[in-house]
Amino acid sequence: MFWGLSAALDLFEEYLNMAKSSDESYEGEKPNEEPKIVQINILLFGSNDPRHVIKTMAKMYAHKAKGTTPILNFYVVDGCIETIARHIALLGIALECPESMNLRGKVHLFMDVYGNSLLRASSYQYLVGKAKSLFKMITDDECREKLTPLLNFENLKYRERDGLENAFRFWLPKEGHIFQIQEYWAARLRKLMGVRYDHRDGAFDWDLNMVLKDREGQQICSQEYRHWRETGIAFTYPEYEYSKPNKTLAVGLVRNGDKYIHRGYVGDMQTGPFAAFGLLSTDERLLQSAHGQNDYRSTDVTERNLLELFHELSSETPYEHNLKDSRRYGSVKLLMGKTLLYNECDIDAMHDYDKPWIQIDGIKIHFLSSEDVFKLRNGEDCWSNHFDVAFVGYNYFAFLKDSFIKLLREKCLLILETKLMTTARNEDIASFEEKLMNYAKANNFTGVINYSALNKKHSILKYKRKMDAEESCANNC
């Protein structure tokens, strides 16, 4: 919950690559050809965060430059309405008007809200101001159309819209809106570690160096991982102080007069928010290491990747990174001071972030009801043959039935997230991956690449439909 365990994908690029590999007659882009309009529907079934939406939107300009005009409909479904509220807030940061803040400020703000249990005061102020704007957007369709017409809430029930309103109200600094994340984190950590609690530093090192680094977590540095496991603060810089509760991590909100009851913190405490943007990069300079020590932390890789995506969202031009802008903290022992105390009502006046969001042509993001989880898995007729791409989060695979396949079109891409980037035992990882493969095989899907020939572990598995003999003959004739 709260973040995914696989890297952000350009889902339109993934779809095109699948289509090319399926169509042997494909001859590539032709010069001076009329722009080709490609419209596809993309289902995000428990993706936990909007990483795929952000990356796909950021790369739209590149596809247009190649002569393709994408029209993409995203359908986001999650069983927890507070997670949807968090999705919307993170999209709001990514698409924040460039006049409101500079690029690096936007990146650090996103990193704060995305991966830290405690926020900087400036991030907290932004979240409060944004909550007011988001509340208006949920309650007033005219306001939503003015701010960001790319969002669509028509599929949400009235009680779910009320749930979004509750979440945005809870983010405001009022006496009854208490979220003591440090206490919740410490209590859950003690319960999770059990008898190992007094030796938790050794347990943290084991989980990182003997488990996650043996999978795809080589870029995570010991210091940042240990600090996150102890405090819930993943992305840190020495010049910042973290003191305000990140209320986007609260779930199960129920109003009780002027106060709220909630479930405390119920998210991941073993892997961290590093996988989405912090493990891979097209800039290989940030992935270098010496004597087993990374030159750059996963935090620094996250910053660089988000700088690229947010630059492309606002300017629709390629991003060139100056390595001097990335701090080489991989092997540096930073001073991790004590977190500060805060007063919930210490800010009377907040700046309102109510300017129109960056508009991306050809994009529509539909948020579905939690009831649609069961409609989708049962392959109900209203969704039959609707999706060209489906991404299924690892913790939502248990909901799938064979009837889920009815939702997918003939030429579709099915992406299944594995449990690779968890601290589960190797046998459990292998067993879960085998279940994914068996599900795909039983429903007449084949790997986009030959996974059985690769002696490698995978955080996602990509599948396409098998062609029957007649289709194969028709394509070859």
Principal-axes shape call:
globular
Beta-strand residue percentage: 5-15%
Which residues form runs of ≥5 with pLDDT under 50? 24-28, 345-349, 469-477
Helix and strand pattern: HEHHEHHEHHEHHHHEEEEEHEHEEHEEH
The Cα radius of gyration reads 22 Å
Question: Order of strands across the biggest sheet?
Answer: 4-10-2-1-11-12-14-13
Average pLDDT score? 90
Number of helices: 15
Protein structure class:
alpha/beta
Please report the total strand number as a whole number. 14
Percent of residues in helices comes to 25-40%
Distance between the ends? 48 Å
Query: Main sheet, how many strands, which sense, barrel?
Result: 8 strands, mixed
Task: Describe, in plain words, how this protein is organized in 3D.
This protein has about 475 residues and is of the alpha/beta class. Helices cover about 35% and strands about 15% of the residues. It is built from 15 helices and 14 strands. It has an eight-stranded mixed sheet with strand order 4-10-2-1-11-12-14-13, with helices on both faces. A hairpin with a 2-residue loop joins strand 8 (about 290) and strand 9 (about 295). The model is unreliable at about 25-30, about 345-350 and about 470-475 (pLDDT under 50).
Can you give keywords for this protein?
477 residues; alpha/beta; 8-stranded mixed beta sheet; two-stranded antiparallel ribbon; 14 strands; 37% helix
